Amino acid sequence: MTRNICIVLSILSSITLLYGQQTQTDSYTQYELLDPGSQSFRIIYDVSGTSSGATYYWNTLRKGSEHIVNAVWDLYSGNQLTWEIVTGAIARKNGLSSAALDTEYLQIKLARPIPKGGQARLRIDKTYKDTASYFKEGNAIIFSRTLGIKRNSIVLPKGYELIHCNYPSQVQLTDDARIKVSFLNRGSQAVPLVIKATPLPNNKFPAIPKEDTYVPGSGNGRDASKARLGWTFRERAFQDRDIVYFLQQPETHSFLLYHDYTESRPGIDRYLNIVRKGSKAKDPSAIILDTGEQLKIESLKGNEISQRGITIFSPITPETEVIAIWFDPVKEGETKRLRITETYTDPNRYVVYKDQLVWDRSFGRSRNTIVLPKGWFLTTSSIPAIIQQNEEGLTTLRFINDRPDLIDVFIKAQRRK
To answer: Which run of H or of E encompasses 298?
Structure first.
């Protein structure tokens, strides 16, 4: 892994790398609002600790809330972990020297030390009673809470309808007919979220009709003249795929990339990366972030794909290229998180034109980062991005796509000298 990748990893971590502080990434929180009279909500918190060598993870317990910890799981194995609630003084003694002395912490014993460059993926299940965050106002319930985590969802009590949400959000029905509100925070500040809901009349619950499967039809894209009957979409905030592109000098038409992917389907023993038409991939590598294990990789082309027993959902031509990454089959209750690194060359979508760097590529994932090459400054970005400079002075663009469709990212840059 190059120094550039390490730098961007530090940018993506949600806690700054300072002595005595733990680092983490990929945080997602689901708040399930319980009976309004209880003023309580269940929190399911997924987080990946990234402090190499750490044997504990500490979760800060918010002041002003009455908290009950229900369980903590190691997402790699699916097993429950041991934990205890400790004072800031004990957390400091055990390694978190930045712990506040007037704060309580959930101290979790990790299943294994965090490997170098790897992660410890956790799911924390706890219940808070917080009268300042969840309360009634007349007939309505209000959830008002400042959320610093970038990916969040709020599940209303059964039988309630959503009447107000102050931040752009997706709305879906859960399998048990509750309304879920979810969002990706595209900015750098915490969201002062306010949600209001009222009970449906006559104790009514939302229906979950048995719908036909949506068929988009033939050709490219959907028939926009008709409603997408039976169409469903995945919660965007929960999706945890992340990709970073390190652009090489544009004359090479090449970029180093890595992307993180979690496999949770029992029995699956491979990840297949179908190389985009017009691109070429080289030097692929992959690890399991949970353990640091290096994985076996094969680059297959044309007939080699079917000869290897691999099926893809598109015609196989002599030019079709697949990167196959193999691992032990996922067991029931387990998940594996992969980091896949490779170099792409794409002379059609990454070029020099009139002495300008031009990048024109569509992104399907919710989180994408581009690092410009040394010596270039940004002049154009068609899609809004969070723009920073890393420790080497390279311009970094972070794209957060909270929609369930593609974004066509068009970038231009010029030489500094």
So the answer is: strand 296-301
